Amino acid sequence: QVELVESGGGLVQAGGSLRLSCVASGRTFSTDAMGWFRQAPGKEREFVTAITWTGLNTYYADSVKGRFTISRDNAKNTVYLQMNNLKPEDTAVYYCAEGRNIWSVRISSEVAYWGKGTLVTVSS
Question: Which residues of the chain have pLDDT under 50?
Answer without folding.
Answer: none
